[in-house]
Amino acid sequence: MNINLTMIGQAIAFFIFVVFCMKYVWPPIMAALQERQKKIADGLAASDRAARDLELAQEKSAQELREAKQQAAALIEEANKRAAQIVEASKDEARKEGDKLIEQAKAEIEQERNQARDALRAEVAAIAVAGAEKILETSVDASKHNEMLEKLAAEL
Amino acid sequence: MAGSASEYIKHHLQNLTYGKLPAGYERADGTVLEESTWTLAHTGQEASDMGFWALHIDSLGWAIGLGVLFLFLFRMAAKRATSGQPGGLQNFVEVMVEFVDNSVKETFHGKNKVIAPLALTIFCWVFLMNLMDLVPVDFLPQLFHMMGLEYMKVVPTTDVNVTLGMSLSVFALIIYYSLKVKGVGGFLGELTLHPFSSDNLFLKILLVPVNLLLEGVSLIAKPISLALRLFGNLYAGELIFILIALLPLWAQWTLSVPWAIFHILVITLQAFIFMMLTIVYLSMAHEDSH
């Protein structure tokens, strides 16, 4: 166990190793470690941001969905109203048409009746003339008694 | 395993020493040197007779080899270091670096670019040197014996020169940073005006030698305790492995396996303690208490 030059040799070796470690080993490793730390921190921040973005997007989509639903409801309501209107309008139309038809039919009937009455009147006049001829045994001049006959027909 | 137990132990505790023997020295084989020679010591006696001018080639060789291995691995990882997904080696290296960095940050609050790499080097290097203790005690010495080298001590930290070399370097850094941060006056003041101080100037001067003695001892004790703690733990551990190796072959594993498992804790802990104390001492050197 002699103290000798080995001690100094060891001290020199120690010095060289420490300097080498300080210059070529420690800085690159520390740099890599710090860079990775930064990367991880950045990544975490990005994920936080993404989560917030996602939340916002979800909120927005929910909002839009709600709006769309409202719009759809409004559209349906309007359509219903419109349909009711159309039905109402067509009902009105139909009623009017019906009334018109009835009116027309009535008018036709009236006309027919008038025609029939006129025809009947003419016939009644002829029959009356014939009857009168038979009674008087003379011919009645139709043109002479026309006035009277027409009066008679109008009374019928 | 040749010779008696004590020879075996002594043989195992002898470093491979290369040094200068003086002229007229009678070597172990009886030859007398005509002039002073640089040579490998053939016996423990020769090694100690070489005095200060001798190198423990095995301690130094293994220490440098392991240091280079550590730096090679870490440099490889550092070169390929990416901030993306790390590979296996980079993962391991990053764990070590972060562990050391956290230890430094917990203890040392100033700004110093040296301390963290210094702590990393100390921890990894000391750990690797300690790790050699787990290699079976006869394995490498036998291998080198076959290659013609008489002695081979493979655990550098069981050589007090190695631990002292490191702790004295740390001591030099303590002195350097003390002077740099506190200035010469501040450093001297810390050594002479604490822990006892007085408002009376005369009393103050009277207390200077007492303070100097106390503070000087505690300052000197730092590198000595740092070196001897590591050395003592590893030396004792190695010695116990050697003693276990003296047992009959069938009994060895019953002791060496538990001891080796326990020793895994010891070698890691000692490396950690050496690193932690270095950080603590250097942070104390940075603290201006005045």
From TrEMBL, chain A:
Lineage, top-rank taxon, reads Bacteria
Q: How does it sit in the membrane?
A: Single-pass membrane protein
UniProt-listed Pfam families: ATP-synt_B (PF00430)
Keyword annotations for this protein, in alphabetical order, are:
ATP synthesis, Cell membrane, CF(0), Coiled coil, Hydrogen ion transport, Ion transport, Membrane, Transmembrane, Transmembrane helix, Transport
Residue spans making up a coiled coil are 51-126
Q: Where in the cell is it found?
A: Cell membrane; Endomembrane system
- Transmembrane region positions? 6-26
Q: Tell me how this protein assembles.
A: F-type ATPases have 2 components, F(1) - the catalytic core - and F(0) - the membrane proton channel. F(1) has five subunits: alpha(3), beta(3), gamma(1), delta(1), epsilon(1). F(0) has four main subunits: a(1), b(2) and c(10-14). The alpha and beta chains form an alternating ring which encloses part of the gamma chain. F(1) is attached to F(0) by a central stalk formed by the gamma and epsilon chains, while a peripheral stalk is formed by the delta and b chains. F-type ATPases have 2 components, F(1) - the catalytic core - and F(0) - the membrane proton channel. F(1) has five subunits: alpha(3), beta(3), gamma(1), delta(1), epsilon(1). F(0) has three main subunits: a(1), b(2) and c(10-14). The alpha and beta chains form an alternating ring which encloses part of the gamma chain. F(1) is attached to F(0) by a central stalk formed by the gamma and epsilon chains, while a peripheral stalk is formed by the delta and b chains.
Name the protein family.
Belongs to the ATPase B chain family.
Q: What does this protein do?
A: Component of the F(0) channel, it forms part of the peripheral stalk, linking F(1) to F(0). The b'-subunit is a diverged and duplicated form of b found in plants and photosynthetic bacteria. F(1)F(0) ATP synthase produces ATP from ADP in the presence of a proton or sodium gradient. F-type ATPases consist of two structural domains, F(1) containing the extramembraneous catalytic core and F(0) containing the membrane proton channel, linked together by a central stalk and a peripheral stalk. During catalysis, ATP synthesis in the catalytic domain of F(1) is coupled via a rotary mechanism of the central stalk subunits to proton translocation.
Q: What is this protein called?
A: ATP synthase subunit b
Gene name linked to the record: atpF
UniProtKB/TrEMBL annotation, chain B:
Q: Which Pfam families match?
A: ATP-synt_A (PF00119)
The record's section on PANTHER family has:
ATP SYNTHASE SUBUNIT A, CHLOROPLASTIC
Which coarse location class describes where this protein primarily resides?
membrane
SUPFAM superfamilies attached here? F1F0 ATP synthase subunit A (SSF81336)
This protein is called what? ATP synthase subunit a
Domain of life, source organism? Bacteria
Q: Which residues cross the membrane?
A: 60-78, 114-139, 160-179, 233-253, 259-282
Q: Is Protein biosynthesis among this UniProt entry's keywords?
A: no
Family, similarity comment:
Belongs to the ATPase A chain family.
Annotated membrane topology: Multi-pass membrane protein
Keyword Manganese included in the entry's annotation: no
Localization per Swiss-Prot or TrEMBL: Cell membrane; Membrane
The record describes the protein's role as: Key component of the proton channel; it plays a direct role in the translocation of protons across the membrane.
Q: Mind listing the UniProt keywords for this protein, alphabetically?
A: ATP synthesis, Cell membrane, CF(0), Hydrogen ion transport, Ion transport, Membrane, Transmembrane, Transmembrane helix, Transport
InterPro entries from the entry?
Answer: ATP_syn_F0_a_bact/chloroplast, ATP_synth_F0_asu, ATP_synth_F0_asu_AS, F0_ATP_A_sf
